[in-house]
Design goal:
Helix 1 packs antiparallel against helix 3. This protein is an alpha+beta fold. Strands 1-2-3-4-5-7-6 form a 7-stranded mixed β-sheet, with helices on both faces.
Length: 213
């Protein structure tokens, strides 16, 4: 079945969130308590729907059904946070990778530093990030793992993703990821990620995009 990628609309995102289990929502937003879909959508909708100039919200559809969402949000030119949510019934079917490839293929973000925060033990999210060339950076919050990538040009990105997918040798795959993430010397500064920058919400969401209470 063909995956269609389009700019996300509010009703579609609400439908997607409703199709996610509390466990999936807790992993995505690093929540420790109840994760009722309606409450999660209400609290995080400004992030989930963030569009230009604050970011990009890309929706994946299969047969007209919303199955995945990629959020790419920037508060500072040249830097962004990325997050992906996939409905339970469609996980491990390449939805996240398809959304990411669409984003990188645009060629708009080359040279940007992109960060992601995932819950420790979320192996699916970690594998997706590593497959895109992200590399781990020090985390300063217990139970979280931080990743960063300086986005290379699309030709380099496709080489890295192919090597990461084809290579079952962990050491060699890690080398591919480091070549992509470390191609820009500015990436070396990411070993201090988290220091000197404002703490974000428990979900890694920019504070400016959270609902006020």
């Amino acid at each position: 079945m063909t995956t269609v990628i389009e700019v996300a609309a509010r009703s579609q995102v609400a439908t997607l969130v409703a199709a996610c289990s509390p466990d999936s929502l807790r992993r995505r937003f690093l929540m420790g308590g109840p994760a009722r879909p309606a409450d999660v959508f209400q609290r995080y909708q400004r992030f989930l729907l963030a569009g230009p100039p604050d970011g990009v919200a890309l929706l994946a559809l299969r047969g007209g059904t919303p199955v995945g969402l990629l959020n790419f949000v920037s508060e500072t030119p040249g830097e962004a946070e990325i997050g992906i949510l996939v409905a339970d019934a469609w996980q491990r079917q390449g939805i996240g990778s398809t959304l990411s490839r669409w984003l990188w293929a645009s060629g708009r973000w080359a040279g940007w530093t992109v960060r992601a925060t995932v819950q420790a033990g979320n192996t699916g999210a970690e594998a997706l990030l590593l497959g895109q060339g992200f590399r781990p950076v020090p985390s300063y919050e217990r139970g979280e793992r931080d990743f960063a990538l300086v986005v290379p040009d699309w030709a380099t990105m496709t080489d890295v993703m192919k090597e990461a997918a084809d290579d079952e040798d962990t050491a060699r795959a890690d080398g591919a990821q480091r070549r992509a993430a470390g191609a820009d010397p500015r990436c070396r500064g990411d070993r201090h990620a988290g220091r000197g920058r404002p703490r974000r919400s428990p979900a890694g969401v920019p504070a400016a995009l959270l609902s006020r209470r």
